[in-house]
């Protein structure tokens, strides 16, 4: 049976995103990972992809929906190209903004599989470190080009909000058709 993908844990009626949680207390074991603060438990989560992106353009093919913008962005470290539909009523995006984007198969800090449903109750999760989270399904992987110019395309639907991630085929090798994924986003300071 198929579950519809949806924005987690916020709904479109939420006027704004909550502030990020404070860093762990000084008594915890922690380290820096790609410039971010992670506790020992959070390092157990295996992410499939993460990078810092900058928004290059909004709605490159024109505005289609009132509450959704399609952002065009490029990543810093892996030079990945991304088109992503974002509910801008919940999470406004602007040209020139930088944001961290992570793709993960689970939000559980111990790495155990995730149901894909939001379960309130105070349990810490990877989502606690991010402002915008969606759950969806990878529906297509393809390659274009030849030789050194081969690019892999990964297509994911988050309940109708779409993502195209294009770049190095070695990154696409981590993904599988029909895989359930979480996208997690958080804005970062401009360099």
Features:
191 residues, 8-stranded antiparallel β-barrel, two-stranded antiparallel ribbon, mainly beta, OB fold (Dihydrolipoamide Acetyltransferase, E2P), globular, 1 helix
Care to describe what's here?
With 191 residues, this protein is mainly β. The protein has a single domain, classed as Nucleic acid-binding proteins (OB fold (Dihydrolipoamide Acetyltransferase, E2P), Beta Barrel), CATH 2.40.50. The protein has one helix spanning 169-172; strands spanning 7-8, 30-33, 36-39, 47-58, 68-75, 81-87, 98-104, 132-144, 151-158, 161-167, 180-188. It has an eight-stranded antiparallel β-barrel with strand order 4-5-6-10-9-8-11-7. The chain has a two-stranded antiparallel ribbon with strand order 2-3. The chain is globular. The chain starts with 6 loop residues before the first strand and ends with a strand. Keywords: Nucleus. This is Nucleic acid-binding, OB-fold. One of its GO terms (biological process) is DNA-templated transcription.
């Amino acid at each position: 049976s198929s579950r519809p993908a949806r924005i987690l844990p916020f709904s479109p009626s939420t006027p704004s995103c909550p502030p990020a949680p404070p860093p762990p207390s000084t008594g915890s074991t922690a380290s820096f990972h790609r410039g971010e603060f992670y506790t020992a438990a959070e390092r157990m989560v295996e992410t499939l992809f993460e990078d810092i992106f900058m928004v290059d353009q909004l709605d490159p093919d024109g505005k289609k929906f009132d509450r959704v913008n399609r952002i065009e962005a490029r990543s810093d470290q892996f030079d990945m190209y991304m088109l992503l539909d974002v509910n801008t009523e919940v999470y406004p995006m602007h040209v020139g903004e930088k944001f961290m984007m992570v793709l993960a198969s689970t939000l559980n800090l111990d790495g155990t599989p995730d149901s894909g449903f939001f379960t309130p109750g105070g349990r810490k999760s990877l989502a606690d470190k991010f402002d915008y989270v969606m759950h969806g399904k990878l529906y297509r992987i393809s390659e274009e080009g030849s030789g050194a110019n081969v690019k892999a395309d990964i297509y994911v639907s988050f309940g109708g909000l779409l993502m195209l991630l294009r770049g190095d085929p070695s990154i696409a090798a981590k993904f599988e058709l029909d895989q359930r994924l979480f996208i997690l986003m958080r804005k970062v300071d401009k360099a």
